[in-house]
Design goal:
- The chain is of the alpha+beta class and about 180 residues long.
- The chain has a domain of about 120 residues: Structural Genomics Hypothetical 15.5 Kd Protein In mrcA-pckA Intergenic Region, Chain A (Roll).
- It has a seven-stranded antiparallel β-sheet with strand order 4-3-5-6-1-2-7.
- A hairpin with a 5-residue loop joins strand 3 and strand 4.
- The radius of gyration is 34 Å and the shape is rod-shaped.
- It starts with a strand and ends in a 23-residue tail after the last helix.
């Protein structure tokens, strides 16, 4: 059997690739074909999820695992039976990023020598996204150091202006009680 699989990205509206792969190929073969078609290198471990018609995950096929069968061990034909079968390919689990796949056609009795990308439109999503680090709130020690630095450098502001200068002769000392001891 020969599968034709359509791959789209929820992140990139105009991105689509169409792949052909044999039913006896493994999920690892499909994984490699997707990465090659998207011009991605090696990255964090990825996972395929076989889904129902509403994209609810039914079965995980991880790249590496101690408990489940891995991509290297599971053939596509073991889990993909019908046209319209859906899958998710999660390539960045930390960010929840992935691709959506659907078996668009199954050809019985046809074979190809190697998996291939039939067509590609648009630009694949970036394999990793760069996060801008949010500024951390300043600690009390940092705020105090800034205030002290400002106080030391703002000495010019502490000197009185001409309007603020006074003449000692102009002060009426009558209201003040001065005693010498």
């Amino acid at each position: 059997m020969l599968y034709t699989i359509i791959v789209v990205s929820p992140e990139v509206e105009d991105f689509v690739i169409e792949l052909q792969i044999e039913s006896d190929a493994t999920f690892a073969d499909l994984h490699d074909l997707i990465r090659k078609s998207c011009s991605w290198g090696k990255h964090k471990p990825s996972t395929f999820y076989v889904c129902d018609e509403r994209w609810r995950r039914e079965r995980a096929i991880p790249e590496k695992s101690f408990e489940d069968d891995t991509m290297d061990e599971v053939e596509l034909g073991d889990l993909l039976d019908d046209e319209g079968q859906r899958m998710q390919y999660i390539f960045d689990a930390e960010e929840g990023r992935g691709l959506l796949l659907e078996v668009s056609h199954i050809s019985y009795g046809k074979h190809i020598n190697a998996p291939l990308c039939l067509r590609q439109h648009g630009t694949a999503p970036l394999l990793t996204i760069e996060r801008k680090e949010e500024p951390q709130p300043k600690t009390n020690e940092q705020l105090l150091a800034e205030l002290n630095a400002a106080a030391l450098t703002d000495d010019d502001d502490m000197e009185p202006t001409d309007d603020e200068l006074f003449d000692i002769e102009e002060i009426d000392l009558e209201g003040f009680d001065f005693t010498e001891e």
